[in-house]
Every structure is written in C-alpha cells, then in structure tokens.
C-alpha cells in the first residue's frame, strides 16, 4: 500500500466487463511529508474519494481480490481516505 493524493479523474465510456460503474481516479503517490514520491497511477475508487484528498492505495493482487466472484482487470484501488496521520517530524495529512 502507499499514501497518495487524488489529483484528477478518468472518464472512460467503454470499459472491460466488471468495471462498469467503477470510478477511476488519478493518484499521485506522496511521502510522509506530503511530497511527490513516484509516478501517478490510475486507481479504482469505490469509496468516494475526491480530488485533493489524501488516500491509501492498494496495488496488485490485494486490489483485485476486493472484487469477490469476478475477475476485474485493475492494478490499484483506493482503500481508504486519510483523515490524519502522525509521524514524528512529518507534516500530518489533511484529508
């Protein structure tokens, strides 16, 4: 998992089976100080994250197993919206 900031949305009218009604967001990975830390990813979002929010993103098999009983072609999914976090010496996240 990694910490990220939602920086945009992706609209796709044609999607693979299993991805209908699945919101896609552009997420910029960030470090504990809130600074960019890696390449942006497109993550599925079933919990309603919005642009500007800090989120927790799961990647790979853990992201796919959240879709019980179906094989969905996703590599990343937003699994939490961060309200705050505490790391000594780091800027606390604002969700």
From TrEMBL:
The record's section on CDD domains has: EutN_CcmL
One GO CC annotation, please?
carboxysome
Q: Where does the UniProt annotation locate this protein?
A: Carboxysome
From which domain of life does this come? Answer: Bacteria
Q: Which organism is it from?
A: Brevibacillus gelatini
Pfam families per record: EutN_CcmL
Q: Which UniProt keywords apply?
A: Bacterial microcompartment, Carboxysome
Asked if the keyword Cytoplasm belongs to this entry, the reply reads: no
What name goes with this protein?
Answer: Ethanolamine utilization protein EutN
